[in-house]
Write a structure and sequence with these properties.
There is one protein chain. The protein is mostly helical and about 160 residues long. It has one domain. It has six helices and no strands. The protein has helices spanning about 1-15, 20, 30-50, 55-75, 85-110, 115-140. The chain is elongated and about 50 Å long. The model is unreliable at about 145-160 (pLDDT under 50).
Length: about 160
């Protein structure tokens, strides 16, 4: 249930900094980070639940959520103001989601294979790590590039 807790952290982050993530002045990179963190946490949450249901349901669920993760990354890749850190996290996410699809397909075809289950576990751990890193960036407000214009809530007070 760690995924459910981390999804809660993401919602708290959005509640604390709504103007910089989904507000009128938010850049597309903020939305991209928040959505990709939510997708990764949802992926890990449902794959963890499906693991309790048996290999046939588990394999199909893993393939489905791996494909959904890849589609969401493709849709989110259109953000114009990506930072190098976001590109790196997206690349790791692609590897993790592709690994899920392949391992899930192996489980559907051949039944439970130790290597496939291990691969899914590792991909799920990567999904957790990336989602947590992205939520933490949003919470700290360090998701924008240094040259990006700041919104009013991020402006530096010269009298402080």
């Amino acid at each position: 249930m760690a995924a459910a807790s981390l999804i809660g952290l993401l919602f708290v982050t959005v509640a604390i900094r709504p103007e910089t993530i989904f507000g009128a002045t938010a850049r597309s990179v903020e939305r991209t980070i928040a959505v990709s963190a939510f997708v990764a946490l949802t992926n890990a949450f449902f794959i963890s639940l499906a693991a309790l249901l048996g290999h046939a349901v588990f394999g199909i669920t893993v393939v489905g959520f791996g494909l959904a993760g890849l589609v969401s990354l493709w849709m989110l890749s259109r953000a114009r103001d990506q930072t190098p850190a976001n590109i790196l996290m997206a690349a790791v996410s692609i590897v993790a989601y592709l690994g899920q699809v392949v391992a899930g397909a192996l489980i559907v075809v051949f039944g439970p294979l130790d290597a496939a289950v291990l691969g899914i576990a590792l991909a799920t751990m990567f999904a957790f790590a990336i989602a947590l890193a992205r939520a933490w960036l949003l919470l700290q407000g360090r998701h924008s590039s240094p040259t990006a214009p700041r919104s009013d809530s991020q402006a530096i007070d010269p009298t402080a």
